[in-house]
Amino acid sequence: MLTANEHYKARFGCKMYKASISFARTCPNRDGTKGKGGCIFCSSGGSGEFSSCVEKSITGQIDDAISQVSKKAGPDAGYIAYFQSFTNTYCLPEELADAMDEAVSHPKIKALSIATRPDCLPDEIMEVISEKANQIPVYVELGLQTSSDKTAKLINRCYETSNYDDAVKRLNQAGVNVITHVIFGLPEESEEQMLGSVRHAVNAGTDGIKFTCLYVLKDTVLEQMWRSGEFEVLGREEYFDIVEKALKLLPSDTVIHRLTGDGPKKLLLAPLWTADKRSIINYINRRFAK
Ligand code: SF4
After folding, report:
1. 38 CA distance to ligand 1 centroid (A)?
2. I need a surface site. Which of 15, 124, 158, 290 has the fewest CB within 10 A?
3. Ligand 1 centroid vs 134 CA: distance in angstroms?
């Protein structure tokens, strides 16, 4: 198992931390271009509750993020500017280029990570990303969540899995490192389907993967489904049993960026075990330590 820390150490020669940035203000699955209301699990913050204030400049946000961890990180740490919330390539190419330029000009930034949807990578945006990837390492994080188009409809993802396959191919060609997000525990998905999504991402050519247990946030469509008993969230053991099987499907050079995610505490309804970060870290260390 190749962890993100090991990968970063080998690539950058130091421990890397993410400086989360709010750049995008919406996504095409919210403003009606692709869909309305967004993916059923997504909060109104567009999965970016941990990033900084969108009103501040990119530089100001990076400074804030760095000052929060600098004591722990120490002077030798490097930072990745993480364009986290909403769909960060859903903008004009020049807007993205300017934002990336500003992030890269920060002396502490050694890489960029851009979270987006695979159907939001038109050629002009790809050109901007690929140009930047010639200058500095660029990671693009794609929210696949599931490879099943049936589940994708149910969660209102509003793009086909073939869009993902195409995006990975083009990003690979541009020398961009692809990280795929997969969610375990989506309604109506069997374990075999969840593992199928992992196989799919590997076969498509992803460089890295992030696993997340589906969690229910307040004021989402998922909340209504959960309250009416349409599905049950995964228990901790159940979730990590699936993760363990998923890890066995990964080639040795696939970077594991995350074994589980934690939702914003003030919005989290279930499963509550995902909120106890310390106990999850201890559990992961016990269960998955090499
Ligand atoms: S595409 Fe991303 S930001 Fe948009 S609704 Fe889905 S999860 Fe939220």
Report:
1. 6
2. 290
3. 28
Q: Which residues line ligand 1 (CB under 6 A)?
A: 27, 29-30, 38-39, 42, 46-47, 86-87, 117, 143
Instruction: For residue 211, give every residue at least 6 positions away whose Cβ sits within 8 Å of its Cβ, in sequence order, or none.
Output: 182, 183, 184, 243, 246, 256, 258, 259, 260, 261
Write out pLDDT tens, residues 196-242.
Answer: 999 999 999 999 999 999 999 999 999 999 999 999 999 999 999 99
pLDDT at 262: 84
Residue 255 Cα to ligand 1 midpoint, Å, equals: 23
Q: What is the dihedral of CA 84, 89, 94, 95, to 10 degrees?
A: -40
Instruction: Please provide the CATH number assigned to the domain covering 2-288.
Output: 3.20.20.70
When pLDDT is cut at 50, 70 and 90, the band that residue 47 belongs to is low
- Close Cβ partners of 61 (under 8 Å, ≥ 6 residues apart): 19, 20, 21, 22, 51, 52, 53
pTM: 0.96
Which tokens sit at 243?
Answer: 């993760």
Ligand 1 atom closest to the CA of 85, numbered from 1: 3
